[in-house]
Amino acid sequence: MDIKIKIEEISAKLLKYQYHYYVLADPIVSDNEYDRLFDQLLDIEKKYPELTQKNSPTKRVGSDLDNTFAEMEHSVSVLSLDKEYTGEGITKWVDKISAGSDMKAEYVVEEKLDGASIVLYYKKGILETALTRGDGVRGNVVTENVRTIGQIPLVLPEEIDIAVRGEIFIKKSEFERFNKKFENKYSNPRNLAAGSLRNLRSSIVAGVPLNMFAYEGYYKNGKGHVEILSDLKALNFPVNKNLALFSGDKNFLDQMKKELPGITTGSVDKIFDYIENHTKERDKLDYDIDGLVIKVNGIALREELGETSHHPRWAIAYKFDSPAAETILEDIAIQVGRNGRVSPVAILAPVQIAGSIVARATLHNQEYIDILELGIGDRVSISKRGDIIPAVERVIEKDEKDPSIYKIRSDCPFCGTEFVKDGAHHFCKNTECPERLRRSIVFFVAKGQMDIDTLGEKTIEFLLEKGFIKSIPDIYSFDQNKLLGEEGFKEKKIDNIKNSIEESKGNDFATVFTALGFEGIGKVAVSDLIKNGFDSFDKIREAAETGDIELFSDIPGFGDITARFLIEHFSDKDKLKLIDDLADAGLRMRAEERKNPEEEQVFAGDIWVITGSFENFNPRSIAAEEIEKRGGKVTNTVTSKTTHLLAGPGAGSKLDKAEKLKIKIINEKTFIKLLKP
Fold first, then answer.
1. If 356 and its partner were Cys, which of 187, 407, 579, 633 is the partner (CB 3.0–4.6 Å)?
2. Which positions are annotated as active-site residues?
3. Superfamily (CATH) of domain 324-427
4. What is the pLDDT of residues 307-328, one digit of tens each?
């Protein structure tokens, strides 16, 4: 197969998987299958870098953004981590870094807590803002909830400007005591911790036994990572004592033992011995960890190694095997999504894994079932990938009475339409399929979309069954007064429905667009469209009519796959009619005009690359933000299109390339002058 075509095919699958996992919170493949494809694409891109798409799925970061809370941009880098599952992989990673630089390589190993990531921003030593990780660029503001966590200092002993990244978690023992009060309502500590951060009432959050460990600090300093952890401890942040430092400098190791009592130290060749030993001991911990994180200690070496748009090159996660159990496959249910994709779901004899009861697991598609040779009645091995997502891993024993392999039925159980096979999946192509319509409407009104809270799933099913509504626009046109007299509908409830439907008309354009649930077009894609001038349905429709993919694929964050999705949607008569009907209903069809930034656009049209370390721009994302506010664009690679290189100490190969290409090189002092009006 042509390499370029192979890249496009894998990218298309990964983009779809990312969309379902991060945007819809509805994963359609196991972590194992996703990681296999992701790693395969990474390998191909390494061998053929010239064919790497600028918006490759390997450059994207997942999102946990929630529309319930305000959003704010991070001023520090909040990326995901690359991962390895074998000791051999970790050893190769360490050897590659140690051999690839003239700088002394030291490493820190930390526990990867299974909780909720948080970034704390302090101004002059006072907690100003707390943000969730979000999509790595923006996070949800949860400051009031974070203030209730006793371990987090509200005022620091120094008047320092600092950003601190950490993990909020619940100890196992405290979770058990807390959960008993609520009759074991909560499935596991991680879900309770993450859910508590998004509770609308901070008084309730105050009653949840939340804890926090700080593991990164961003402020003006020239120190290594383990020294920063020592500083964080001195600033009254809780720092996990279970960490290890590996270096060839015995004096440095002895010094850090004094500053961080309990730290394990050793030579670099002992890293994986520590990892193996700590892995065996993890069940003895009073909190959940799903791996260990290995980081380069030196900040200068981190700067040299840099980062991708997905993960830093100076850190990697060693992931543990997923918890597993055995059970019986009792049945397979067929689900049809709002876009017609068919999902077989395993109905299991309930079994406990990692503190929660698992009774269902996705089976992805017929190919996955065939690979497993899976049939109803089989005894199977179940895992929780990433300790979260249930997955059927293998058949342990076939059912003696009927050792057959399950086959997905040929027609839709909801409308009788023949399924169409497209790639690995089956689809119901009937746009009027009652199940597709139901799921589309439920998605449209849900929290995080139009948020019409009076129209829950059961109410939607009732309205459909009684014929009050048949499509999304009917929500805004059906006569709510006719509900009076129906069982469960009294005047107050009907008034609440009327009010919430009317209030939803005030949702902004981005919310309306996302709520339509067009495949491949989630919150991030909509935001990118608006930022790049496609701030109304009319503009998008007009561009889509040309059929020119490059009008959209050139948008940062898009690429050919998303562009094709968009053109396909805006060439569909049914979808265009849906948009027109919602316009008639009074929903917002264009984004509000943005105010011009205060800063003069002095860098408009410029393309910058930032390399090296800086006194006033640590991390470098602070400098990038200043450039972008003034109309410039920041990229990671020096090319003939680069106009400026902002270079600090340790600039390395990027500086050499910029000099060869005669690109304008700016030092920190000159850059600061350029920022002044």
1. 187
2. 112
3. Nucleic acid-binding proteins (2.40.50.140)
4. 776 788 899 998 876 667 899 9
